[in-house]
Amino acid sequence: MLRAGPPSHTLLRLPLLQLLLLLLVQAVGRGLGRASPAGGPLEDVVIERYHIPRVCPREVQMGDFVRYHYNGTFEDGKKFDSSYDRHTLVAIVVGVGRLITGMDRGLMGMCVNERRRLIVPPHLGYGSIGVAGLIPPDATLYFDVVLLDVWNKEDTVQVSTLLRPPHCPRMVQDSDFVRYHYNGTLLDGTAFDTSYSKGGTYDTYVGSGWLIKGMDQGLLGMCPGERRKIVIPPFLAYGEKGYGTVIPSQASLVFHVLLIDVHNPKDTVQLETLELPPGCVRRAVAGDFMRYHYNGSLMDGTLFDSSYSRNHTYNTYVGQGYIIPGMDQGLQGSCMGERRRIIIPPHLAYGENGTGDKIPGSAVLIFDVHVIDFHNPADPVEIKTLSRPLETCNETAKLGDFVHYHYNCSLLDGTRLFSSHDYGAPQEATLGAHKVIEGLDTGLQGMCVGERRQLVVPPHLAHGESGVLHLHQGSSQ
Ligand SMILES: *[C@@H]1O[C@H](CO)[C@@H](O)[C@H](O)[C@H]1NC(C)=O
Ligand SMILES: *[C@@H]1O[C@H](CO)[C@@H](O)[C@H](O)[C@H]1NC(C)=O
Ligand SMILES: *[C@@H]1O[C@H](CO)[C@@H](O)[C@H](O)[C@H]1NC(C)=O
Ligand SMILES: *[C@@H]1O[C@H](CO)[C@@H](O)[C@H](O)[C@H]1NC(C)=O
Ligand SMILES: *[C@@H]1O[C@H](CO)[C@@H](O)[C@H](O)[C@H]1NC(C)=O
Ligand SMILES: *[C@@H]1O[C@H](CO)[C@@H](O)[C@H](O)[C@H]1NC(C)=O
Ligand SMILES: *[C@@H]1O[C@H](CO)[C@@H](O)[C@H](O)[C@H]1NC(C)=O
Question: Pfam families from the entry (predicted)?
Answer without folding.
Answer: FKBP_C
